[in-house]
Amino acid sequence: MSTGSEILAVLLVLVAVGALVLAFPADQSRRTKRRLAAIKTTGGATGPANTGDMEKQRRALLQTTLKELEKEKADPKGRLSLRRRIEQAGLSITPRTYWMGSGGAAVVGALLAMFFVHSPLGWILAAFACGFGLPRWVLAFIKKRHQTAFTREFAPAMDAIVRSVKSGLPVIEALKLVAAEIPEPVSGEFGLVVDGLKVGLTMEQAIKRMYQRMPTSEVNFFGIVMSMQAKAGGNLSEALGNLSGVLRDRKRLKDKIKAMSSEAKAGAMIIGSMPPGVMAMVWATTPTYMTPMFITEIGNLLLIGCAVWMGMGIMVMKKMINMKY
Fold this sequence. Notes:
mainly alpha; 14 helices; Receptor-associated Protein
């Protein structure tokens, strides 16, 4: 490939990366701060003027807990260490194993690219995609699936704790029951909480570590409830029962959103699969018509541009149809 074509390919990739950065802003701190401020304001403005001292104390403790959670929350995505991301995915591998697998994937990607693309730039891009992008995507996919499985079994775990507390069992025994009866990955996480309590951690510290391993809003809610109960007392079974109801409502809302957006997702899948599908059909019927795309410099450049822009379009469509709730 000529020098001009290589420069054009690099510029095309840089433009695509810049467009992706604009399309997917990573800074959500302002939105989070506004939500926390709204919660604090609502908590301080509601209630009659003659509220009892206990209610005022609980409200003050709630605001203090929210401030602590804001200060001690996990790092935003992209700044977490590799070991922490592997832990959140529920894997037992080490970062060294991860990088060794990434290196192997890069070599395999470069070798496969040599059979289809006759350009060193294409080999480098394929090695970069398979060695850096693909492992991160796989790790993020496993992490999301792990958290989804945890969230699915978290509401029954809350119900089990409520029944145990109402029957007179201590909280630690209720957590042991959850670790023994609820399926993975909930049982494993609560087992680690119980182990932490056995070695001298407080309930707040143990659940904080649980949130670091499983950074979901459900675990965050559970930590707030347990922290409030430990500091200000109150009816733990009622609080956890309300939390279980909230979690089930969130699950119903998620299913409703999934059903309402299924048509848009199907349309996005059809639109995204049409170009490679048509390309495969043309290659199968008339291979000589597609051969110049793989053996000429300008054809390789066009393939790279098509892959970049198609990938960007698919990611933008995914961003548009994934609703937050």
